[in-house]
Specification:
The protein has three helices and six strands; from the N terminus they run ααβββαβββ. The strands form two sheets. A three-stranded antiparallel sheet has the order 1-2-3. Strand 4 and strand 5 form a beta hairpin. Helix 1 packs antiparallel against helix 2. The chain binds zinc ion. Zinc ion binds next to helix 3.
């Protein structure tokens, strides 16, 4: 029986050698079937046909595994596209601001009738696809997600312009 095919994406790339192996399995199945057809001895022919049937079943399983992997990849692709779209939308509502020399944050862009108040978000978190609004804690501004303190704005307030 065939080894289950795992086409999950690891890192940035999918292992295409698995697809190559499945195609190679198909070629092998065809070769086995041809060999079975060329056998003239009945006993040997039955054994060859059994071997060919086994190869066909194995190939069918590989094809089913590939179809399942393909469906998973399509789903993953749709989810990643939606996530990219959301991130692009968020990116359009912020701009990089230097609130003190060498201190950068993501500043919300004022929009008429905006639901959210003007604010700053942590730049490193934002670049990782996570919006974390800076919070004032213990007299300094901190990112609630990564815990980094942010300087600037005189320490008591971040001036939003
Ligand atoms: Zn952060």
């Amino acid at each position: 029986m065939a080894t289950p095919i795992d086409l999950t994406c690891t890192g940035d790339f999918m292992d295409f050698s698995l697809i190559t192996a499945a195609v190679g399995g198909a070629a092998n199945t065809v070769a086995i079937a041809r060999a079975a057809l060329e056998v003239r001895d009945f006993t040997a022919s039955a054994a060859a046909l059994a071997k060919a049937n086994h190869a066909m079943i194995d190939l069918q399983q590989r094809m089913l595994d590939l179809q399942a992997a393909y469906a998973r990849l399509q789903q993953e692709n749709a989810e990643l596209r939606a996530r990219l779209h959301t991130m692009a939308d968020a990116r359009d509502r912020y701009r990089l601001a230097e609130i003190a020399p060498g201190v950068f944050v993501m500043q919300s862009i004022a929009v008429p009738h905006a639901v959210e108040p003007p604010h700053y978000a942590c730049q490193p978190c934002f670049d990782q696809g996570r919006r974390a609004v800076l919070q004032k804690r213990h007299g300094r501004w901190e990112c609630p997600a990564c815990g980094k303190a942010v300087g600037g704005g005189g320490g008591s307030s971040l001036l939003i312009t």
